[in-house]
Design goal:
about 240 residues; alpha/beta; 4-stranded parallel beta sheet; 8 helices
Length: about 240
C-alpha cells in the first residue's frame, strides 16, 4: 500500500473529466493527473466510473493500467470528490469499483467483459512484483480489427505496462526468447489467420518458445490477468 507522502498519479478512463475534477486533483497533496496512454505506467489511481454510471468501458487505458504493477486502485470518481472535500487522499477501499457502492456498475461491466473484475484485481495484487507479460516479446500482425481494437501506440503501452516488449518484426526476436504472437480473429477472417499461422511456421528463429493468441483472446488475457487456456504453444527451431 502507498504511504501518505507517496505521489498519486490519476488517470480517467471511459468517463469525462470535468473542470471540477481538475480542481479536486489540485486540492489533494502530492496528486497529479496524466491523460496520455504512454504515461499509464505512472498511474496509481484510475478513475473509471461513478455510482450513476451504467457500466465500465473497456478502454486501452483500462487495459494498460490493469497490466501495470503501479496501479492498484481502480476507482469511482466519488473517491476524488470525497478526498478533495477533506484536502487529502482518502483510503480507496470504499471507492474501489468492486465495493458495494458500484455493484450495479460492476455487474454490467463483468457481463460485457465476460470476466470477473474483482478476480482480476485480486490476481493483480498477488503478482504485482512480476507483471503478466514479463519476459515476453510480443508481436502483433498488422491486419487486426479497426475501431474495436487498440491502436498500435495503445498496444505498445499495454505491453510495456505489462512488462513485455513489442517486436516490430518477428525475425528480430532474440534466440531463446519467449514470444507471444497475436493474430487476427479467426471468427472474423479465418483465411487471413491461416495465412498468418503459415507465416509463423516459415519464420526461422532459433529455439524460440512461441505462444499464439488471437486478438480477442489477447484482450481477455489482459482483462483477466491470466494466460489460462487461451494460448497455443510451440517451439520454433531454426
Amino acid at each position: 500500500r502507498k504511504k501518505a507522502n507517496d505521489s498519486i498519479v490519476i488517470m480517467f478512463s471511459g468517463i469525462e473529466m470535468t473542470v471540477s475534477d481538475k480542481i479536486a486533483i489540485s486540492s489533494i497533496p502530492n496528486a497529479s493527473f496524466v491523460d496520455n496512454i504512454a504515461q499509464s505506467h505512472l498511474v496509481t489511481h484510475l478513475i473509471v466510473a461513478s455510482t450513476s454510471s451504467e457500466t465500465i468501458r473497456r478502454t486501452a487505458k483500462l487495459m494498460a493500467t490493469l497490466a501495470s504493477p503501479t496501479c492498484e486502485n481502480v476507482l469511482g470518481v466519488e473517491w476524488l470528490i470525497s478526498s478533495a472535500a477533506v484536502n487529502r487522499a482518502l483510503p480507496t477501499d470504499d471507492f474501489c469499483v468492486t465495493s458495494a457502492s458500484y455493484a450495479k456498475v460492476l455487474k454490467e461491466a463483468e457481463r460485457s467483459f465476460q470476466c470477473r473484475l474483482a478476480t482480476t484485481l485480486s490476481i493483480k495484487r498477488r503478482t504485482i512484483t512480476r507483471p503478466l507479460l514479463s519476459g515476453f516479446e510480443v508481436f502483433f500482425f498488422s491486419a487486426l480489427p479497426g475501431n474495436s481494437y487498440p491502436t498500435k501506440n495503445e498496444l505498445n503501452a499495454i505491453v510495456t505496462c505489462g512488462g513485455g516488449r513489442v517486436l516490430e518484426r518477428l525475425k528480430d526476436c532474440p534466440p531463446d526468447a519467449q514470444v507471444l504472437i497475436v493474430t487476427s480473429d479467426p471468427e472474423v477472417d479465418p483465411t487471413l489467420v491461416a495465412s498468418q499461422m503459415s507465416f509463423v511456421e516459415q519464420v526461422a528463429i532459433e529455439n524460440v518458445t512461441t505462444r499464439i493468441a488471437n486478438c480477442s483472446d489477447f484482450l481477455q488475457i489482459i482483462l483477466t490477468q491470466e494466460m489460462g487456456g487461451r494460448l497455443l504453444g510451440q517451439t520454433l527451431e531454426k
